[in-house]
Amino acid sequence: MFSTLRQSMAWVHTWFGLVLGFLLIVIFFFGSLSVFDREIDRWVLPETRFEPQIMPSYEGILEQAFNHVAPETDELAAAKMRVEGELPEQLQIMNWGAYTTHRDPTLYLYAEYAVPNNPNDPFDHIHGYATIDPRTGAFLPKDHLKIGSEFFYPMHYRLYLHWENLGYIIVGVAALIMLVALVSGVIIHRKLFREFFTFRRHKHTQRRVLDLHNMTGVVALPFHFFFAFSGLVIFAYIYLPVSATVLQTPAFAAAQEEAKDKGLAFAPAGQSAAIASVDTMVVAAKRLWSERGMPGDVGYLFVNHPGDINSYVSIYRAGRDAVSLVGQGIHFNSVTGELIYQDPDPTAISIINEFLTGLHLQHFEHWLLRWLYVIGGLMGCICIATGFIFFVEKRKRDSQQVTTVRWVDAFAVTSITGMLLATMAILVANRLLPVDLEHKGSWEIRAFFMVWLLSLGHAFWRSNIVAQGLISPAWREQCWGVALLSVLAVLLNWTTTGDHLLKTLFNGYWPVASMDLVLLTLSGLSIKVALSLRQREGDALLLMEQG
Amino acid sequence: MNEFILLSLTLVSCYTGMSWLALAMKSHWLQLRVKRDFTSIKATVYRILGAASLCGALVLCLQVDHPSIAFLVWIMSMVVAAKAVGLTLSYRATWLRPLAIIN
What we know:
The structure holds 2 protein chains of 2 kinds.
Chain A: H1 5-34, H2 37-44, H3 58-68, H4 73-82, E1 93-99, E2 107-114, E3 125-132, H5 147-158, H6 166-188, H7 205-219, H8 221-234, H9 236-239, H10 248-262, H11 278-291, E4 298-304, E5 312-318, E6 326-333, E7 339-342, H12 348-361, H13 367-395, H14 402-432, H15 440-461, H16 473-497, H17 501-507, H18 510-545
Antiparallel strand pairs in A: 1-2, 1-4, 2-3, 4-5, 5-6, 6-7
Chain B: H1 2-23, H2 26-31, H3 40-64, H4 67-91
């Protein structure tokens, strides 16, 4: 089919990159936003605009909060369909946990509840989730969406698709194709090192966008490679679920054996017992970390089989000073408060795994590195976007490819400016919708997808001109839309919360100030691009009329 | 504050290093429009300077952070610096003239 390796790789790069590129740009963009997901949460939930908190007292706050966590209603309804007979009114709690990082003002809690009488799964269970104010223990309303961590972040790793693991699998395929595109891109690039810094912005559009595509792709190659690869590593258990399928029995036996070796009870004894002071255990854990030369705060607190005589408490150190997320777990007997087991130093394989996972999930405290990640992610978006534009530019005067070019251009508009429009729309909706609106978060998500769908329709409607070799006005019009909505979001933040930019800057409240500054910068850039596009549209029309 | 200075120096060092690597290429040397010839010896010296500057940036990163984080900061600083040098060469190439220190 192809006479050289370079030709075949060019085909792979073009077509796989094009088809999966529409997904990859979404993954890259929302991944970039997710770097500051907690800060976005604070912008959208004004009641959480206070300083990050450490793990609160168990006896003072957590114990009561855990007891008020309830199973998710949709999971409970699904569980009722899986069991024989009726589910008991109160499900047995299997475990509960609390997780925090140095960027969280609020605290995330979860619990697992045993689902009895499932003939197909003796270990069936469902979950309960809650977010609390760790200073008071007050629960945040469930229908108030944390847009950063509960919408933008899931858009990054599973496209917000809930059905089975479809979203994870699609993202995994896209990440794999990303790796293929990187390798094939390197093979087809004739002057990888000679044009490392080359961007000939005065040349014609096709040359210009190809230079930008090559430069962003090559200079950010380590970033793109490691993020695509580490993303696959993180969800390897979903893509290759051997321990839950073909190796289920030995995996279960190994887990039991491991728990036995560590002295951590695998199952509850069925005999109730009161829990000792967890706060004392936390103090002991912090002392042990200090003795090991790694003083730190609690990142993750986990109670297994609470209320049972076999219960134990696991306390993990927050990984704010290293790439790994949490670590140095210390396990205590819940009933006696005695130390059971300390996690040993990680093995070489664990260190590699923790490094790959941690570099992607980035729970460390390093603001410069976070911003560098955002720039890296946006460079990925530029690389993909210029790939689309190059595809269109190369083919738009070819009468044989009119339909393909129109489709690609319309999808490119939707996945670039349309995605920005939808992102601005959800922020504007968040500030416009009444605080006490029932299912407020769902309405915000609807606003996001509705605007994105409208941008797709608009892009198709305006794309007929592309077939004549001209620039679709949809690009310019949607840029104006982004500029307008981003300024509107900043103004609405001011009017609905009183936290205007000067106030947040003066008070040094950077999560909100930075959001407003980014929105205003985006607005300025969108206006600049819109004006530039208007000029180019005019030039292209003039050229066409002159023949 | 000390961290801020060291990390700022890291970024400067990466940008300078990438600029010197760019000046080791004839096409970019010509973009600077300096009245000096481009020679293979100069190219080698600029490559060595560039590599040394990037290594210096790694040393600076290691002064601030845990080695695992320092490595990431170094890689990402180089990525962003390379992009910045590419854009400087495209928009304001003459700004890099002060770095053409070898006659």
